[in-house]
């Protein structure tokens, strides 16, 4: 945007320089009043041509910011945008490796992973291209800012890469980079706050940061994390609000709507260190499909070809177990399980140590130390069992083990772990209850590949070990965790996920409305569970279709009264009394959440086999 110049009364427009009363711009009169009193508080307003006249206020608030409607007498020539190029699916990832950069152990790890999976990405790209045929796609300019790897956030991950620290986030980020590159989009990758600022710097006006950027944001989409989100907001100032609909937040454990809505979270005790960004909840992208309120991003596991599968079938040791856990603390207090397991199986560990064996690992365990990924894969291909002791939660390793022909044994949590009773989840923006170490493995894969037992019951634990030794399984990998499955899913998101500037949720063309199935949840049941009961998934984008008296009537709910309020459980009705409640704020539409007081109206949809994020007609 250039300087607007100072309008003069001689233009004969004085009568049209009054703050309009327009319901689509409710903040306009208040903003004009604020400008009248404070326009000299920041030099950036004068930079944009504000000179103290009513006309200059309205021009600024309609053409630089977006609080007032365009003035009809102004020249409204829309900016011409060049047509976007058609993307070409990429199968050579060497340029991506250059884009990732170097210098940090975390980046080296990610580059090694991308390089190792190059052949699988190339094959998946060919399959997806055939599947899409002549479908029209646009090349997007994408900024990828990995905030948790910046020096300003401490970059705690890089030093721990070589010491057994958690790698799940870096596995996911490596795969996100590969997916976006393979799909043919233009990428700019940064793990530096200084570089991020330089990318945005040309558009920062002089002054104290109260004005928007002076040039349009040069990126169509931004992928970042919670740390990066905070860094962007601090640097972009007012423009953050304008461009936040372009942001996608990689959020491992998810953010529920009640925590995302700043005012609601503050009033009702959902305020945490994370959350409260007032984004569309679908802009948060998770590692596993925890809740349909967010978008399931995922990652990939290495696939075996038929020859490799045949070799595994012939080389499995029926009495070999590998323990899930590279840090010594995970083994602490697990002697009882290990001694039972040792009666039947040879136990292997991959616990990091520098000079001497960690005391938490019993002498009868064969500890290999920290293994590079290819060697860890080879260990899994020999083993019969991959066993978890309750932590870490929901990492990539169990899927890798199952894909290499292992059975995964994990502990059932009773009571379930959540932010209410467990330190790990405390402060995370979700009320989700976790009933086992890896709920996705339990619920979406299950037996014979996944066994979930009560580790406090020694007899049940021992019986499971005996049965597992006699159970034959083939390598298995859910389609949504293959390279092709992830490419398909992210392609669909980029083509179809669009949100208005105010981040409200409105009925759109995707997913298509005809895939909606409405159901009433029983009292105390969340919509997530109610839809699953019918073999469906909850689809939050359909909530507006159910947020009306007509929807209650079609579901044969007689309403004695109907009120509209802010509540993440609405639309719903209370019994007794048949009081019906509609949702007042679209940002609070939520598949999660339940109360014994309410029966919720739930929007459900079908899904593609092995691709829960997409409906049958969503590709």
TrEMBL record:
Gene Ontology MF: a single term: alpha-1,6-mannosylglycoprotein 6-beta-N-acetylglucosaminyltransferase activity
Domain Glycosyltransferase family 18 catalytic, residue spans: 44-604
Pathway participation: Protein modification; protein glycosylation
Span list, region Disordered: 1-23
Membrane topology: Single-pass type II membrane protein
Keyword Transport: no
InterPro entries referenced in this protein's UniProt entry, alphabetically: GT18_cat (IPR026116), MGAT5_Glycosyltransferase (IPR052105)
Documented EC number(s): 2.4.1.155
Catalytic activity: N(4)-{beta-D-GlcNAc-(1->2)-[beta-D-GlcNAc-(1->4)]-alpha-D-Man-(1->3)-[beta-D-GlcNAc-(1->2)-alpha-D-Man-(1->6)]-beta-D-Man-(1->4)-beta-D-GlcNAc-(1->4)-beta-D-GlcNAc}-L-asparaginyl-[protein] + UDP-N-acetyl-alpha-D-glucosamine = N(4)-{beta-D-GlcNAc-(1->2)-[beta-D-GlcNAc-(1->4)]-alpha-D-Man-(1->3)-[beta-D-GlcNAc-(1->2)-[beta-D-GlcNAc-(1->6)]-alpha-D-Man-(1->6)]-beta-D-Man-(1->4)-beta-D-GlcNAc-(1->4)-beta-D-GlcNAc}-L-asparaginyl-[protein] + UDP + H(+)
Composition bias type Polar residues, residue spans: 1-11
A Pfam family the protein falls into: Glyco_transf_18
Top EC class for this record: transferase
GO CC term, one of those recorded: Golgi membrane
UniProt keyword terms in alphabetical order: Glycoprotein, Glycosyltransferase, Golgi apparatus, Membrane, Signal-anchor, Transferase, Transmembrane, Transmembrane helix
Gene Ontology biological process terms from the UniProt entry: protein N-linked glycosylation
Compartment annotation: Golgi apparatus membrane
Family per record: Belongs to the glycosyltransferase 18 family.
PANTHER family: ALPHA-1,6-MANNOSYLGLYCOPROTEIN 6-BETA-N-ACETYLGLUCOSAMINYLTRANSFERASE B, ALPHA-MANNOSIDE BETA-1,6-N-ACETYLGLUCOSAMINYLTRANSFERASE
Protein name: alpha-1,6-mannosyl-glycoprotein 6-beta-N-acetylglucosaminyltransferase
């Amino acid at each position: 945007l250039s300087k607007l110049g100072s309008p003069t009364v001689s233009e004969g427009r004085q009568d049209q320089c009054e703050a309009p009363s327009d319901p689509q711009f409710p903040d306009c009169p208040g903003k004009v009043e604020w400008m009248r009193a404070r326009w000299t508080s920041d030099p950036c307003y004068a930079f944009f041509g504000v000179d103290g006249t009513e006309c200059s206020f309205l021009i600024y608030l309609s053409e630089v910011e977006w609080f007032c409607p365009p003035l009809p007498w102004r020249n409204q020539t829309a900016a011409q945008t060049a047509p976007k190029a058609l993307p070409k699916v990429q199968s050579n990832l060497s340029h991506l490796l250059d884009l990732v950069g170097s210098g940090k152990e975390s980046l080296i790890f990610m580059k090694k992973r991308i390089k190792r999976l190059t052949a699988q990405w190339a094959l998946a790209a060919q399959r997806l291209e055939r599947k899409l045929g002549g479908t029209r796609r646009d090349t997007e300019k994408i900024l990828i800012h990995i905030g948790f790897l910046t020096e300003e956030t401490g970059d705690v991950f890089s030093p721990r890469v070589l010491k057994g620290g958690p790698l799940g986030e870096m596995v996911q980020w490596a795969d996100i980079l590969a997916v976006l590159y393979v799909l043919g989009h233009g990428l700019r990758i940064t793990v530096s706050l200084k570089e991020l600022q330089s990318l945005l710097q040309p558009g920062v006006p002089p002054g104290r940061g109260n004005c928007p950027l002076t040039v349009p944001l040069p990126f169509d989409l931004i992928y970042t994390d919670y740390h990066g989100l905070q860094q962007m907001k601090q640097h972009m100032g007012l423009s953050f609000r304008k461009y936040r609909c372009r942001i996608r937040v990689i959020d491992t454990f998810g953010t529920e709507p009640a925590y995302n809505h700043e005012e609601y979270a503050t009033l009702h005790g959902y305020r945490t260190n994370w959350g409260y960004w007032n984004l569309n909840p679908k802009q948060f992208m998770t590692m596993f499909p925890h809740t349909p309120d967010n978008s399931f991003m995922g990652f990939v596991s290495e696939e075996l070809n038929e020859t490799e599968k045949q070799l595994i079938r012939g080389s499995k040791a029926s009495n070999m177990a590998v323990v899930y856990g590279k840090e010594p603390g995970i083994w602490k207090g697990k002697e009882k399980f290990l001694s039972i397991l040792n009666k039947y199986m040879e136990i292997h560990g991959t616990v990091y140590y520098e000079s001497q064996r960690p005391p938490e690992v019993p002498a009868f365990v064969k500890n290999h130390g920290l293994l590079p990924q290819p060697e860890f894969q080879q260990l899994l291909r020999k083993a019969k069992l991959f066993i978890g002791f309750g932590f870490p939660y929901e990492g990539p390793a169990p899927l890798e083990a199952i894909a290499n022909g292992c059975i995964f044994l994990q502990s059932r949590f009773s009571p379930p772990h959540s932010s209410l009773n467990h330190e790990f989840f405390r402060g995370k923006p979700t009320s989700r209850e976790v009933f086992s170490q890896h709920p996705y493995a339990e619920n979406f894969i299950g037996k014979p590949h996944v066994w979930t037992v009560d580790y406090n019951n020694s007899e049940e634990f021992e019986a499971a070990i005996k049965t597992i030794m006699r159970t034959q399984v083939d390598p298995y990998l859910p389609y949504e965790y293959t390279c092709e499955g992830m490419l398909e899913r992210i392609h669909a998101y980029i083509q179809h996920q669009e949100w208005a500037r105010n981040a409200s949720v409105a009925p759109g063309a995707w997913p298509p409305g005809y895939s909606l199935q409405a159901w009433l949840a029983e009292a105390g049941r969340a919509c997530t569970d109610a839809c699953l009961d019918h073999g469906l998934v909850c689809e939050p984008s359909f909530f507006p279709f159910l947020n009306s008296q007509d929807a209650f009537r079609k579901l044969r709910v007689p309403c004695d009264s109907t009120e509209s309020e802010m509540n993440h459980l609405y639309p719903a009705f209370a019994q007794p009394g048949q009081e019906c409640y509609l949702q007042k704020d679209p940002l609070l539409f939520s598949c999660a959440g339940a109360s014994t007081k309410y029966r919720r109206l739930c929007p459900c949809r079908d899904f593609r086999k092995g691709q829960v994020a997409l409906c049958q007609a969503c590709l």
